[in-house]
Amino acid sequence: MSKRQLYWIFQIIGWSLYGFIQLFLYSVEFQITLSFFSGQVLQVVFMVGVTHLFRNYIIRNNWIDVKWVALIPRIMIAMVVFSLAHYLFIILISYLSGNLNGIQEFNVLYVLASMLQSMGLFGIWSLIYLSFLYFERYNRSLKYEAAIKEIELNNLKSQLNPHFIFNALNSIRALVQEDPLKSKKAITQLSNILRNVLKAQPQETIAFSEELATVKDYLALEAIRYEERIEISYEIDEHSNFFRVPPLMLQTLVENGIKHGVSKLKKGGKLELITQRVAEGLKIQIKNSGKFTAKKKKSGYGLLNTEKRLKLIYGDQASLKIGNVSDHTVLTQIIIPEPL
After folding, report:
1. What does the pLDDT look like over 154-181, one tens digit per residue?
2. Which class does domain 146-337 fall in?
């Protein structure tokens, strides 16, 4: 069913309900005559027609783009015009039907009471319709933002995959001649990683345990490559598996720590992955040997890519920080919010 069809259904049902209530209230004290019933039917038609014309006026003049401060006076003026037109219409119908008893006493209080009632009805209709327009616009903006985010995340992921595969293949290539058995094991680990990468959708998050498995496979490849030059340790909070993270996020940061830290040192170094549940959510820390400079953040796209992904998925609820905690240790820290 289209929105236009729904609009007309609600218009007719809503104003018909108003007419029915008027008939019911009248029947409590008086007997409903054919002329009175016809008058109520004509009033319902009048309400439907006038509010529909007002709807067209709202759309044509883009009232949806007007701020509430400027919109309220316009609605008030429209309510007065509508109530006056409604009152004159009632007089006309009563005159044509020969039923002027209800308005023979043409005094100011009666006119004001009748117009206030009409203003109230028109005000309620205006509030409902404008609220619907704002809700529809908000819903469209959400869909648009979601589409933009999906496109951006797809672009970010398309950057990560070739970069990651290239580095992993380089690690395996170094092993093929030196140690065929280790190279076979490395190929198996790479296939596990690629399986996880291919099944992950860019706009989704994955369980922390899945990301951790990818990280462990990747670090196992690097441990084969660097041998005794790298020392890897894990300190994983048992509550970490309740959280979800963007695919390849940790792997990217771990790779960044090795590429810009451990690999630059002649004697190699350490890399630690630590997680802890805190009040804000899940705190993930990656400590690696080396020294961080601002230039390293701008070179490549690992950190910048991660910042963009966190912003797109979690907004301001997630954070990424990186800096030196000592002369020889770099700390990369991420906080992921609690799952909804």
Report:
1. 555 555 456 667 766 777 777 777 777 7
2. alpha beta
